[in-house]
Amino acid sequence: MTNLFEIEGNWFEGVCSNHPAEHSVHYLASKLHEIYEKDQAGTLTEADIPKCDECGAPLALNMAGEDFQINQKQVQAFQDFIQKYEDKKLVVLELGIGPRNQMIKAPSM
Question: Where are the domains of the chain?
Answer without folding.
Answer: 9-108
